[in-house]
Amino acid sequence: MALEVLVDNKFNISKDLILSLKNAANLTLSEESIDESVVNLKIIDNFEMQELNKEFRNKDKTTNVLSFTNNDLSKEITKNIGDIAISYEFVSDEAKEHGKSFSDHIIHMLVHGIYHILGYDHEDDASAEIMESKEIQILAKLKINNPYN
């Protein structure tokens, strides 16, 4: 499994955090028995996130994370299962608001995004419970507290 990370130059993401993100992605996909796959992660600003949210979800506002599942024919060759965009600013503000560390919160957003790529959602209570339970289990293995408490 490979996580390809692209960070907007205005944000300082440490090599340790990049490694932690890669470890979280590896663990998540391993737990779901998905081998030899690639996920692209781009860490962006609120403006770019708002533009993506407007274009792809018809919501003219920023958000913390967006996921895009790769349904292209090239998937078999490239092993790319999808793309994730995370807003550095939104996640940073959210982490402060909820008393979480930035690194724990951005790792959670990555895990959350991967589960969206894998087809999970939180559109209703039953679906949300399944998805959140999976996230909580992965985060616990990464020594990150339950983000839903």
Considering the chains and any ligands shown, give keywords for the structure.
alpha/beta, Collagenase (Catalytic Domain), globular, 17% strand, four-stranded mixed sheet, 149 residues
Task: Give your account of this protein's structure.
This protein has 149 residues and is of the alpha/beta class. It has one domain: Collagenase (Catalytic Domain) (3-Layer(aba) Sandwich), CATH 3.40.390.30. Helix content is 52%, strand content 17%. The protein is built from six helices and four strands. It has helices at 15-31, 46-57, 75-78, 88-98, 102-117, 125-141, and strands at residues 2-7, 38-44, 65-69, 80-87. A four-stranded mixed beta sheet has the order 1-2-4-3, with helices on both faces. α4 crosses α5 (102-117).
Individual helix count? 6
**Roughly how much helix do the residues carry, as a percent range?**
40-55%
Distance between the termini: 30 Å
* Sheet having the most strands: 4 strands, mixed
CATH topology title: Collagenase (Catalytic Domain)
Radius of gyration, in angstroms, nearest whole number: 15 Å
Q: What name goes with the CATH superfamily?
A: Metalloproteases ("zincins"), catalytic domain
